[in-house]
Amino acid sequence: MILLGDDLEVVVERKRIKNIYFRINEDDQIYVTCPKHVSGREIDKLLESNKDSLEKMYKKKQKKNKENEKILFLGKELDFVEYKKIMFEENSAFGPSVDTINEYLEKNSLGVFQERMDIYLPTYDNIPKFRLRVRKMKSRWGVCNKGSMTITLNTLLIHKKPYLIDYVICHELAHFHHMDHSKLFWKCVEEHYPRYKEARKELRD
Length: 205
Prior knowledge:
By secondary structure, the protein is of the alpha/beta class. It folds into 3 domains: 2-68, no CATH class; 71-106, no CATH class; 109-204, Metalloproteases ("zincins"), catalytic domain (Zincin-like, 2-Layer Sandwich). The chain is built from 7 helices and 12 strands. The strands form 4 sheets. The protein has a 4-stranded mixed β-sheet with strand order 6-7-9-8, with helices on one face. The protein has a 3-stranded mixed β-sheet with strand order 3-5-4. β4 (21-24) and β5 (30-35) form a beta hairpin. The radius of gyration is 21 Å and the shape is globular. It starts with a strand and ends with a helix.
């Protein structure tokens, strides 16, 4: 199937399920999961009717792949210099590879996030004592767990601009008062982070 000028292979897997799902995997294949009775002709029609959505998925994946080829620290791109040790100097990052440096930044993101957290935490009333943790996540930028009294931030946020990190922090802190995404929740977020709609949209793109 042609998406954005590229010819992508379609891989079909039939299972005992009721619905049909599309995704684009790491090998740039359109992966279709569907019920066993669905024919190839039906799949072709569905792919064509969902072409706009598939192109958006593919475009988003291409953007992510390009970002993975860069060294981004708090939204700023650093020049890569191959070196046996990891070190940073002005606008350059030294290390064995781009991946190694990015992994280092993600592994050491907690301190940076804690500094941003310390800016906003005092602006909230009646926040219980909690622990800030970091973890690499595929589908969420942050998680507030009142049961374990933890806020977990996605380590990939270290590559984003500070104001995007701040939005996620304010979002998760607001969950201590409102665990849903009700109007009251978003009002709370807006009180502490007025430009939340802009940040939210940027993190989704």
